[in-house]
Write a structure and sequence with these properties.
The chain is built from 11 helices and 2 strands; from the N terminus they run H-H-H-H-H-H-E-H-H-E-H-H-H. It has helices spanning 14-28, 35-48, 58-69, 72-96, 99-110, 121-129, 141-152, 156-172, 184-192, 203-214, 220-230, and strands spanning 138-140, 177-179. It has a two-stranded parallel sheet with strand order 1-2. The N and C termini lie far apart (71 Å).
Length: 237
């Protein structure tokens, strides 16, 4: 405490308390879970998530959220409380669109044996909303990679929404900017790779695909890539 750098400026000791919660759940993975202590900590974690945008210790919160969401024992004992925290996490993502929250939710969703997460309505709605990212003017290359994982894993919620959004995705493909990609064409090719996993093409989707391939705005390399990609799917181009 003799160093000014060590003086705690937060009378709530939020960072320290969250660190204690994190350590607690690390131990719980190999030991019996204390229901009373766990319940108190989950209540504290949920309260700490209020006002996410102005929260100084978001990284610490993200760390503890990973622990609790991946703790099977915790889900067995406190599924209701964890469901509320998960819904709160999704709500904060929809408000802040922070990459850390997107990364957390995505990692959980594509991890095998996490079926308990899909019991939460908020998490289901989040998965269903993911294809909308492909309709936006810009999308990070990292997000495209995550959506590709959802597609190849044949996630039923994601797949149904993807098929519904397919005409809009195709109409957006010539103009979307994939930030972090090598170049514009490469980024759009990465999006088009997701089409490989689509087996159910609606008439509107096929029409949008045909219009895309015939469009003057469609790069020849992109059109050729899509044509070769879908050749094995028997899509009438």
């Amino acid at each position: 405490m003799r160093s000014l750098e060590c003086v705690n400026q937060d009378p709530r000791c939020l960072f320290q308390n969250l660190a204690i919660c994190s350590i607690f759940y690390c131990f719980c993975s190999d030991h019996n879970l204390d229901d009373e202590l766990s319940s108190r900590m989950l209540k504290y974690i949920k309260g700490s998530m209020r006002n996410w945008k102005v929260q100084d210790d978001r990284q610490q919160l993200l760390k503890i959220l990973r622990h609790v969401f991946q703790c099977t024992k915790c889900w067995d004992c406190h599924s209701t409380d964890l469901g509320k925290i998960l819904d709160c996490t999704v709500k904060n993502y929809k408000t802040a669109y922070e990459h850390g929250l997107f990364e957390l939710l995505s990692d959980l969703a594509v991890t095998p044996n996490q079926t308990h997460l899909y019991r939460c309505a908020g998490f289901q709605e989040w998965v269903e909303s993911l294809p909308e990212l492909l309709c936006a003017p810009t999308i990070p290359a990292t997000a495209v990679g995550v959506l590709a994982k959802f597609a190849c894993q044949n996630n039923p919620l994601f797949y149904k929404s993807l098929c519904q959004k397919l005409p809009d995705i195709l109409n957006n493909l010539c103009s979307v900017i994939v930030t972090g990609a090598g170049n514009e064409c490469e980024g759009r090719k990465n999006i088009s790779n997701i089409l490989y996993w689509v087996k159910d093409w609606s008439r509107d989707a096929v029409t949008s695909l045909s219009n895309l391939l015939r469009s003057e705005n469609c790069d020849n390399k992109l059109a050729s890539h899509i044509t070769d990609l879908l050749a094995s799917r028997y899509v009438d181009l």
